[in-house]
UniProtKB/TrEMBL annotation, chain A:
<dbReference type="GO" id="GO:0005524">
    <property type="term" value="F:ATP binding"/>
</dbReference>
<dbReference type="InterPro" id="IPR027417">
    <property type="entry name" value="P-loop_NTPase"/>
</dbReference>
<keyword id="KW-0813">Transport</keyword>
<dbReference type="GO" id="GO:0016887">
    <property type="term" value="F:ATP hydrolysis activity"/>
</dbReference>
<dbReference type="InterPro" id="IPR050388">
    <property type="entry name" value="ABC_Ni/Peptide_Import"/>
</dbReference>
<feature type="domain" description="ABC transporter">
    <location>
        <begin position="6"/>
        <end position="256"/>
    </location>
</feature>
<dbReference type="GO" id="GO:0015413">
    <property type="term" value="F:ABC-type nickel transporter activity"/>
</dbReference>
UniProtKB/TrEMBL annotation, chain B:
<dbReference type="GO" id="GO:0055085">
    <property type="term" value="P:transmembrane transport"/>
</dbReference>
<keyword id="KW-0472">Membrane</keyword>
<dbReference type="InterPro" id="IPR035906">
    <property type="entry name" value="MetI-like_sf"/>
</dbReference>
<feature type="domain" description="ABC transmembrane type-1">
    <location>
        <begin position="190"/>
        <end position="378"/>
    </location>
</feature>
<feature type="transmembrane region" description="Helical">
    <location>
        <begin position="196"/>
        <end position="217"/>
    </location>
</feature>
<dbReference type="InterPro" id="IPR050366">
    <property type="entry name" value="BP-dependent_transpt_permease"/>
</dbReference>
<keyword id="KW-1133">Transmembrane helix</keyword>
UniProtKB/TrEMBL annotation, chain C:
<dbReference type="InterPro" id="IPR003439">
    <property type="entry name" value="ABC_transporter-like_ATP-bd"/>
</dbReference>
<keyword id="KW-0547">Nucleotide-binding</keyword>
<dbReference type="InterPro" id="IPR017871">
    <property type="entry name" value="ABC_transporter-like_CS"/>
</dbReference>
<dbReference type="GO" id="GO:0016887">
    <property type="term" value="F:ATP hydrolysis activity"/>
</dbReference>
<dbReference type="InterPro" id="IPR003593">
    <property type="entry name" value="AAA+_ATPase"/>
</dbReference>
<dbReference type="InterPro" id="IPR027417">
    <property type="entry name" value="P-loop_NTPase"/>
</dbReference>
<feature type="compositionally biased region" description="Basic and acidic residues">
    <location>
        <begin position="415"/>
        <end position="435"/>
    </location>
</feature>
Amino acid sequence: MATPLLEVEDLKTTFSTDNGDLTAVDGIDFAVDEGETVCIVGESGSGKTVATESITRIVKEPPGRVEGTVRFKGRDLLSMSEEELRQIRGNGIAHIFQNPQEAMNHCYTVGWQIAEALQIHQDVPDKKARARAVDLLDRVGIANASTRFDDYPHEFSGGQKQRVMIAMALVSDPDLLIADEPTTALDVTVQAQILKLLDELQDEFDMGILFVTHDLGVVAQIADRIVVMYAGKVMERGGVLDIFEHPAHPYTQQLLNCVPEIGGNEGGIPGTLPNPHDPPDGCRFAPRCSYAEQTCRTGGQPEELDVSPGQRVSCIHYRDGRDPSLLRENAPGVESGSNGVSSADD
Amino acid sequence: MATQKPERFDQVDWTEISRSRWFDLSINSIGMLAAALPLLIVALYDWQVLDERTPTLEPVGPAWDVGTVDYLFIFTLLLFAFYIVLPLFQNPRRTKYYWREFKRNRPAVVSLGWLAVVFVGGIFGPFFISAPEQSILTGYQPPVFLSVEQSYVSTCVGEVVNNQCQGTWQHPLGTTAGGKDVFSGIVHGMTISMQIGFITTTIVATIGITFGTVSAYAGGWADELMMRFVDIVLSFPTLLMFLLILYIYGAGLGMFIVVFAAFAWGGTARYVRSKSLSISEEEFIKANRISGASTYRVVRRHVVPNAASSIITQLTLLIPGFLLAEAQLAFLGLGDSTIPSWGQLISAGRSDLSFAPWIVLAPGIVLFLTILAFNFLGDALLDALNPEAEAENA
Amino acid sequence: MTDEPILSVRDLKKHYPIRKGIFNRQVGAAKAVDGIGFDIAPGETLGLVGESGCGKSTAASSVIRLEEPTAGEVVFNGNGRGGASRDSDGTHPNDVTEFSDAELKRFRRGAQMIFQDPASSFDPRMTVGSAVAEMLEVHGMSDRHRRRAIVEDLLERVGLSAEDYDRYPHEFSGGQKQRIALARALVLNPDLIIADEPVSALDVSIQAEILSLIDDLQTDFDLSLLFISHDMSVIRRICDRVAVMYLGEIVEVGPTDEVFADPQHPYTEALLSSIPTPNPRSTVGGIELAGTVPSPTNPPSGCRFHTRCHRVIQPDGVDVDQSDWRGILNFRDRVAAGQVDVESIRENIVVDDGPTSDDHVRAQLRTEFDIDERIGDPEIEGTLQDAIDRLLAGDDEAAAELLSDRFTTPCAETVPERTVHSPDHESSCLRHESEQATAPGAADD
């Protein structure tokens, strides 16, 4: 395989707080290929947002501290100067966030902001920039783009603002789009529009997308590959079909169980996230895991093991000489081959 | 209760409970009432029965004539004790938390220590140290360890060495031209400062909070009217008003406190109003409203306590202004010259600055430190009591 | 038990006046809730679903009189008030909107509410125990120990421990706070709980916990629930019946299974099709709702959904592709609103060779509104071309007039009546009315 578009190795982000250091992301690695969508899935507090913000170092430093390697098209982002990094942020990697209204300047028209973003990176005349901005607005599905060019952000609805944000992210023709819960604040109908749009744009621009969400429904629709995070560590990774049809890690299984359409588990996952100041020994999920045994509670997070091509899991039950069949048997999951959803109707 | 199983919420007979209703007073209010009633009775007795010249406590012994300002002061002290100090004890966990937050700010801890000295000195000092008395013969005594040329002093209390009058422990901070002891002047000045601080704060807080919350909850034209009135209050020339009253009626400390407090609550009211409005948008206020609680109860139990941290901070920062105003007026010779305030002391020494600087410096430094301490304290309280920061640090 | 509903809402309206000028003259009203009605049977869970801004939360706070409804009737038969019949003047003695202060306070014991944001639903300066106990205190239970015993027992019942009584809200996670919120809503032993998006702010794993807790409590204490959510999968999980709201009105109501399996209103259909299914092999249903929810100040005439409906009815004699029809109507509305600016379109077209011609603008207009290059019906095509020509000639008004004259839909003219599809399953869509008209008695109930 050629070098991936984005390669993250042993990424570790620590925040110094009044109560001591807090390691939000604790040595994770993953990669995103061109034209591929990778979803980072996890509950709030799992460190997924911090992980994405550490990539282009938009996480606040200090109190944050980012260590590890992040290679974008072979160049290490973490050793770059602020100036070089700014080039990458605008030109190679674009970010969209959960709350579009906070990411816009309310004093300027939407079109002006897009045109300006364009002119920062490319030397184009005003008229051309304007035309391109209208084109982008139209591209992201703003009806009547040429007229709405001169509207101010407050005249747009939440979904439209997110579209504008996407348009802004597209001006520099990015190779990688990092989308941090871009649809969580939106209505389902609008969410469907945005997801469809991202899909179309990905085909058109051949972007890699790194998508952060806790909504497994969205993941199933958009992801090619999935990285499951829990308490700052990667629990499991694999293709979307592997994860949904044969989840291997007990945490992934529990998470899927909580989705009404899949799981029979109606009680959620017992217990709470571990204290990030003092994570437990061994597997981070062990304290809440029903398969946990003594080995799980000592040492560090278990090494990742291949369970099927492309699917790796950090769980001792898959070590050589162990029998994971119990985990396999009780696993939830979408039935492979079926087109509908394995229903959990009463 | 231990013998029977706990009652379950769905077995409560509400029809019975809602029939038997009686007014439920908190321990704080009961204490306050119990303490304030005797005070009120004494005050009434003083006002109606005793003639003006008889000191209030003469029948019991000490010749202390309790004045209006003193009654007010005692009343505010009671309020302070029952509604600020007592709750701190009733809620030790919360207090510990505040203290932990507060402790981070070193200057503020020192400030608090200083203010405690002023507070204790102001309340108990006058009982042990008699008020400074005029004694022309022992004027201009230097503070201990210092000396002054003998020609300035008519009678030197201490030794005279090399024609220099030496200070003594009898007057540790020296005396004024009139022979008043500066140290006892400062101690009695603490009382005055505490009186100014406590009484104005109470008046400002009462009017400000009432006005602010009523305005916020009334809404509509009532709100509009009340806020325009606040504008008037805020733009009123308080000093001119005070001077006017001074020339027409003559003014003592009481008048000073009343006039200045009466025009200082505008900011507080405005602040409380905006704070109440934002708090009343919170979901817990909605939850309380559908609990069936009256608006008064919601405001009293939830809105005001949640606004309290910022109100307390704001009030703490108001006090230095009053103390300074008093000192300034006294310095200009417009204050009440019968009271032993720091300002009066400073004003008494201003013409002798060249050879007897202690008369101005000693109370001046004390005043400066007190004002600084209030400012530090206000700042630290803002950080320690801020509920948002609290949630984040938790 | 009688089959009398515990809550019966009829024609409930909540309008927010819009005032302008120095005399605060009312110039209009935002019709957040505009004449909704539903019943909730004892022990039943009714879901109220819709996009943000459709008025579902306003409906909830009007029902519970957190806000004063503008009009309508909310009959609450819980609290032992059942069996009452209407007075001679037509008013109902159990009408919450007419309750006196004393009755209202009693009503508070019968109906309680849970809110969306666990972070702000507790007073940060009060222990959670006293926050729950305060409910008892407000209603006159003056014995502190009795209050504490009841609340501690209840905290255990919702999955916390008695020691949690003395802890402060910030010491709890979002899910735990929502449990305490449930305890606070329950402590007065109400018959009805209104839950306003109670799990929207929580993670999936916690959502599942809270939902199953709600389920258990409902069975144990025979509660009725009005459950408000924008999340269809949550609704499906917990509700017996569901009412779909759009722009202040209920467009469809029916048993959850039936509504999910066989949605009758196009809006329900669109809403359902946009839920992402957690199955990587299936794709999202694909009905894309264009545009945004119109302003409730000036809602569209007729059926309020007609401005976005993918099934908007073509008048007699018109038969074009449905998506073209939608595009034409969108075009008509934008022209009428003066929002189609030919000059800026012209300005923004980049042509590689030569100046921009009128044809470019024509093509651009059609792309922007998703209208085919040539529409099947020649008469329609002619009118459309005519209108575009007028636009190009700068006569916007004439274009608007022509378009609104020629392109009309019955949906904009007639307010749809409720159509009954099966017992309990009703919707308001003109398509069903015409179907019923052609097949009389088919849907008789």
